[in-house]
């Protein structure tokens, strides 16, 4: 591991998040398979010790919170077994989009429902991410109406997360497309509606299908822009980057940190999971191995040799993390365990390592 002075680096702990009482939104993200869900669950458990009510939300289509807590959750907040202030909900973008379409169709006449469905189908196929943007808008509208002190987002892998941050841009494109459709075909659609017996419009107030769609998108844009403003306030929102000490994961973390900076979103914590003996130094382990391998069986020597090679590789990438972020970021090393972290008991135990830093050996 590259040399660093212990006094020069921020504390290797997420205690800074727990202590910052003004934080309302905490995102946890990174490459797929690096332990985002475990980190989200553990962080939420620590937050629940210092907050009145905490909510964990999964925005990943492949939900894992139910598996992590060993408890089935749905799209409505549900209390975690063993807690009286920690809740979990898992959202489904497809379900939310269907709900939005059903609500719009319910306020339309029978003749106009097919027009609305056609418009929605055209919109979702021509503007990737619009369904997720509208679903996220509905989620934020719901969450903001609740009285949670802090909401932790267990996000999808990096690519999906960056698209989430680009929702304001997506909404502008969607509104522009609807305006174009209205300008080109609005009169024709209204005429067809009248010929088919519509009362001048699809909505309860006489709106045309395009006006109804435009109204819904405008409402969604307003919510997302408001939320986006909150996300760019470091006193309210922060992003925890999660990775493992391997090249691809470290590379993607750097890309994520840069993109977060472009979007104006605070990020000053990096959690590195699956670290082999984080308190040990690879060179010292190598000295021990050289002195002992003569007395080892061939199989034992091969196992220790592979472990040491992996440890050296990990230390190289951990050193790169400290070189990149050590001056400004809290870098937390989470040990590789000999068991899975599932269930409230194991998550609670493991969560302590997020706030009680590993005692690093300093060169």
Automatic annotation (TrEMBL):
Q: Which UniProt keywords apply?
A: ATP-binding, Cytoplasm, Endoplasmic reticulum, Hydrolase, Nucleotide-binding, Transport
Write down the Pfam families for this protein, in alphabetical order: ArsA_ATPase
Q: Does the keyword Endoplasmic reticulum apply?
A: yes
- Binding site residues for ATP: 31-38, 246, 273
Instruction: Name the top EC class.
Output: hydrolase
- Relate the assembly described in the record: Homodimer.
Entry protein name: ATPase ASNA1 homolog
